[in-house]
Structures are given as C-alpha cells and as structure tokens.
Design goal:
With 160 residues, the protein is α+β, with helices and mostly antiparallel strands. It is built from five helices and four strands; from the N terminus they run E-E-E-E-H-H-H-H-H. The termini are far apart.
C-alpha cells in the first residue's frame, strides 16, 4: 500500500502545496499473478489523483489526530492512556469523533464482577452437564464400602 506524492510543477527547493498531487497504489501481496502496484481512487471519487488539499481534507474526516483521541477511540485507560482517561473522566465531549457513536458506557459491572459472574455461570453449566450425565447416561453414585469389613470377611473365610 502506497500513497505516492508527486508534483506537476517545478520544485525549488520544495513545491507549493497547491502543486502536490496524491495517488493511492496497492498490490495484494497474496496474489501471485501480479507484482505491479495498481492505482485506486480515494474517497469515492473517480479520479486516481487528488490535489494535496483534497487528500488532507478527506483524511481528516476520519483520522485520529492525537494520542488522547486514540485512547478514547480504542477505550484504553491504562499505560500511556491513563493520563488521557483521567483528564477526560469528568468532562463531556461533544466533538464529532468517529468513535462517539460506538463508545460504550462503563456504568455497568466492573471487570472483576464480570469475571466472578462468568466463573459462576461456567460452574453451573458444568454441574448441569454432570447431572444430566448421571440421570440419562446410566452412571450411578454408590457408597464406598469400608475396608475393615472386607478384611473381616477374608479372615473369617480362612478359618475352618
């Protein structure tokens, strides 16, 4: 995958932003029939090349531009995202971020409680499966005989 930047003007020492064009090139690495990059149009346009300003506007519509936005988008609250989570914990953001509609509320149960609930559900399922095996599988629980009575029988059988 390549974003090719090129210019149609002269560059002295660097071209102006209005002269820079962008082209998206891609090659499926698993396809054995071709090793050439293929140009594809970006952002629903029919042209293969875009001016830099159109490319930047199109990317900014869904780009994650800061670490705080990245931490919010992925939902991480530990490590480097801990400071971002602490800073935004009390504030309400009305910015149209891409994850605003898919973010989840943490007002439900904690992960510890969820783990305990999951363990209990697993235990209940295992016990129900064992009960079904005992009832319908022909398995029976029997009381274990004491070893003392068995030894008495052996000793008494040996006497004339």
């Amino acid at each position: 995958m390549t974003f090719e930047l090129f210019t149609t003007g002269t560059a002295s020492p660097f071209p102006a932003a209005a002269d820079i064009m962008v082209r998206f090139l891609f090659n499926n690495g698993t396809a054995a029939d071709s090793s050439d990059l293929v140009a594809y149009p970006l952002f629903g346009q029919s042209k293969f090349t875009l001016p830099w300003s159109s490319f930047a506007d199109g990317m900014n519509k869904f780009a994650i531009g800061s670490q705080q936005a990245w931490c919010h988008a992925c939902g991480n609250t530990t490590g480097v995202c801990a400071a971002s989570a602490f800073a935004t914990a009390g504030s309400t953001s009305s910015s149209p971020s891409p994850s605003a509609s898919s973010s989840s509320s943490h007002a439900g149960m904690s992960s510890v409680v969820g783990g305990v609930v999951g363990a209990m559900v697993t235990l209940v399922v295992i016990l129900v499966m064992e009960a079904l095996a005992l009832l319908f599988g022909g398995m029976r629980l029997v009381k274990k005989k004491r070893s003392g009575k068995i030894e008495e029988n052996i000793v008494t059988e040996g006497k004339p």
